[in-house]
């Protein structure tokens, strides 16, 4: 998972620091060295690391520590700011994902296997999520690899976008010209151009990209990079940036990259700013890259902003109010439980979500997360096997002799084992009790608005 190793090391250091009563010179040097080692182990470029460390050191000595802030808190803040600096500045994702006043053209470039074609489909999906009425044309300009054209066509269909397909062996420049003509005629708002990739950078490829960029007059040229190649991604980016005007980078496969060297080195070495990150193979697995939030997440300060945004995206205000009201009334049915589960799944994997909660992210290991995700799936199947009445009235299962018959029917209907069934009913009871407590607490403290 994204930056896991690096984050664990850094959080360990910072947590040791924050336990100190006195943050003496020796402690400071030791902490600084630990931060340095964590960055080096993450495969960040050494020069970048040394610059960051010396900046923290200088600022710690010269900066005025505001009242009410401890020295150790100041240290954490300076490390955070240093990380934000090297992860790149703000605003890249927002600029890239802005509305199209007139047709906006994007070129996607990158080495073969970096995830370019998948990223285009993900990007189209993300654009449609933000601008549901947008008309998007995908253009397959990788004319040397028939499989690439077919792949884009298939992915295009999955995200409901038309794909302009080149014939195998056609001249990429000619294909692009035709596609652009067509896109103007048909009034497409966005044109996303997939270009040829190579296993390594070669002059031929670079020349072709240069020509395509000129013809496309692209508003954005996005470089797709495989995060798992670590620092090497930054060197690749530097080479691409010498030929095309890379306006933003997409770092893919961050879900499989526990170190983070690519993200930590990219901006300083190549000047390319990360705009988006690939977080799974799934077509939903593309997220804007916000350096300050990522830095907070790495340091274990949590990423409440992302969490809230995601929640706002997925649950309407009415639903949230209704849920809160029910909590206060201490009603909690299987239907509510199912709604909560669907809400949790719609917010992405539980693992990702938990990681954003301050103080929780670093305490949960992946084994526990996958156990929980499995539990959620089982619970969904079980609830779906219940009748309407049962979903509304959990007491039916905890009441009398008929309860056992009901449970047996559900077990058979859902195809789950007795152990899973028992575990489910136990978990539901605990969730119900927790909700009641939470509701009572909220009522007492006036934290939940009622729907009057
Ligand atoms: P291209 O040759 O650059 O067009 O690369 P593809 O789009 O064909 O992707 C290569 C492989 O990487 C495919 O198996 C993708 O499913 C996978 N991939 C792309 N992006 C991601 C990502 O963010 N996470 C993971 N885990 N896999 C990805």
pLDDT under 50 segments (min length 5)?
302-309, 447-452
Strand order of the largest sheet: 3-2-4-1-5-6-7-8
Helix content: 55-70%
Number of strands: 8
What pattern of helices and strands is seen along the backbone? HHHHHEHEHEHEHEHEHEEHHHHHHHHH
Based on CA inertia axes, which overall geometry fits? flat
CATH topology of the largest domain: Rossmann fold
| Each distinct ligand | guanosine-5'-diphosphate
Please tally the helical runs, counting DSSP H or I stretches of 4 or more residues.
Answer: 20
- Average of per-residue pLDDT values: 83
Number of domains: 3
- Broad CATH class of the largest domain: Alpha Beta
Radius of gyration: 26 Å
How does CATH name the architecture of the largest domain? 3-Layer(aba) Sandwich
Enzyme class: hydrolase
Protein name: signal-recognition-particle GTPase
Catalytic activity: GTP + H2O = GDP + phosphate + H(+)
GO cellular component, one term: signal recognition particle, endoplasmic reticulum targeting
Description of the structure:
The structure is a single chain. The chain is about 60% helix and about 10% strand. It is an alpha/beta fold and about 450 residues long. The protein folds into three domains: about 5-85, SRP54, nucleotide-binding domain (Four Helix Bundle (Hemerythrin (Met), subunit A), Up-down Bundle), CATH 1.20.120.140; about 90-300, P-loop containing nucleotide triphosphate hydrolases (Rossmann fold, 3-Layer(aba) Sandwich); about 305-445, Orthogonal Bundle (434 Repressor (Amino-terminal Domain)), CATH 1.10.260.30. Strands 3-2-4-1-5-6-7-8 form an eight-stranded mixed sheet, with helices on both faces. Helix 10 links the parallel strand 5 (about 220-225) and strand 6. It is flat and about 80 Å long. Residues about 300-310 and about 445-450 have low confidence and may be disordered. Bound molecules: guanosine-5'-diphosphate. Guanosine-5'-diphosphate binds near residues 116 and 280. The site of guanosine-5'-diphosphate has 18 residues, from helix 6.
């Amino acid at each position: 998972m994204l930056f896991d190793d690096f984050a664990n090391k850094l959080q360990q250091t910072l947590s040791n620091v924050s336990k100190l009563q006195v943050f003496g010179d020796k402690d400071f040097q030791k902490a600084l060295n630990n931060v340095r080692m964590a960055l080096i182990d993450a495969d960040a470029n050494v020069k970048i690391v040394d610059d960051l460390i010396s900046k923290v050191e200088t600022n710690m000595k010269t900066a005025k520590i505001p009242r009410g802030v401890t020295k150790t808190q100041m240290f954490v803040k300076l490390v955070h700011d240093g990380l934000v600096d090297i992860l790149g500045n703000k605003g890249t994702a927002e600029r890239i994902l802005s509305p199209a006043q007139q047709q906006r053209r994007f070129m996607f470039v990158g080495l073969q296997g970096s995830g370019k074609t998948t990223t285009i489909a993900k990007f189209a999906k993300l654009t449609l999520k933000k601008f549901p009425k947008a008309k998007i044309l995908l253009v397959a300009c990788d004319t040397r690899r028939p499989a690439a054209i077919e792949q884009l066509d298939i992915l295009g269909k999955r995200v409901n976008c038309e794909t302009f397909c080149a014939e195998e062996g056609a001249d990429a420049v000619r294909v692009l010209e035709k596609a652009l003509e067509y896109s103007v005629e048909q009034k497409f708002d966005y044109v996303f151009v997939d270009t040829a990739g190579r296993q390594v950078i070669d002059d031929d490829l670079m020349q072709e990209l240069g020509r395509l960029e000129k013809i496309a007059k692209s508003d954005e040229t996005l470089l797709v990079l495989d995060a798992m190649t670590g620092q090497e991604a930054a060197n690749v980016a530097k080479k691409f940036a010498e030929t095309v005007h890379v306006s933003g980078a997409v770092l893919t496969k961050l879900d499989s990259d526990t170190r983070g060297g690519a993200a930590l080195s990219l901006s300083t070495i190549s000047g390319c700013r990360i705009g988006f990150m690939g977080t799974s193979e799934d077509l939903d697995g593309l997220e804007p890259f916000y350096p300050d939030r990522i830095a907070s997440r790495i340091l274990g300060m949590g990423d409440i902003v992302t969490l809230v945004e995601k929640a706002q995206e997925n649950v309407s205000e009415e639903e949230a109010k209704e849920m809160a009201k029910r909590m206060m009334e201490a009603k909690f049915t299987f239907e509510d439980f199912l709604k909560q589960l669907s809400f949790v799944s719609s917010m992405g994997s539980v693992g990702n979500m938990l990681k954003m909660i301050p103080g929780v992210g670093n305490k949960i290991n992946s084994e526990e997360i996958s156990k929980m995700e499995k539990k959620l799936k089982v619970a969904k199947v079980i609830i779906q096997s219940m009748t309407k009445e049962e979903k509304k009235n959990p007491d039916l299962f905890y009441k009398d002799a008929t309860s056992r018959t009901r449970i047996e029917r559900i077990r058979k209907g859902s195809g789950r084992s007795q152990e899973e069934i028992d575990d489910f009913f136990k978990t539901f009871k605990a969730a119900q009790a927790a909700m009641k407590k939470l509701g009572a607490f909220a009522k007492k403290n006036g934290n939940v608005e009622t729907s009057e």
